[in-house]
Amino acid sequence: VDSNPDYSFIMSLHHIYESYLDPLTMNVLQSRLYTPGNDLYLARVYYYDYEQNLFESYAIHPDGRFSYLLKDIPRKIQDSTSMLFFARGLVSDKLSGFTTVVIDEEYKYGYIKFLNETEKIVSDNKDVNAIKIFARAEFNGIAGMNGEAWGWFSPDNQATPLKGEIEILIGSITVEIDEKHTEVPDFHKQERN
After folding, report:
1. How far is the C-alpha of 118 from the C-alpha of 166, rounded, in Å?
2. Residues 21, 82: contact at Cβ < 8 Å?
3. Mean pLDDT, 10 residues at a time, over the chain (193 residues)?
4. Which of 44, 91, 133, 180 qualifies as a cystine partner to 33, CB 3.0-4.6 A?
5. Nearest to 57 by CA among 69, 72, 43, 42
């Protein structure tokens, strides 16, 4: 996650997220967060042990301290990054669903609704058809995310995320596919074939 440098006077983010998922269930198995320049922690690693219902957190703080947390997992869960892949799975299966999410080592809840709606959006300077979803988060997330979000995914079985709009405390954030580093298929061509 890199914020727009033109708005660095409001907020400057450079976070690197990694999530490792079970490919069958889309539940998170391990997640890593690197936050250079963060005042609270430089890195966090989360492990999810579903056989023993345990959640482990390791954190490295800027002053060199190391912290560890072990707690029970109430059910199979997501982290904030793997929610995107959970949403992709729901879109691909044309389903809605609730999920438990780990945010700052606390369990929060989210809901993703498959709307069965297709909208035209602009992606990679092309008009493409996209499947729209609605999401509601019962938690505050990165950059003050505080509630409602909408997402647009490719209409094929891959359900590639194309665009997202997320409400924050002072407006909204638009998240778009990185056009320079990602090849966006021509969905209209696929629909004609």
Report:
1. 19
2. yes
3. 50 67 82 74 86 92 90 84 80 89 83 92 86 83 66 87 75 61 46 40
4. 44
5. 69
The helix or strand, by DSSP H or E, that contains position 82, with its residue range, turns out to be helix 82-93
Q: In what order do the strands lie in the sheet with 16-21?
A: 16-21, 28-34, 43-49, 54-60, 66-72
Cα separation of 149 and 104, whole Å?
20
Q: How many domains does the chain have?
A: 1
134 vs 132: CA distance, rounded Å: 7
* Alpha carbon separation from 164 to 96, 133, 179 (Å, rounded): 17, 9, 14
Tokens in use for 50?
Answer: 């579903």
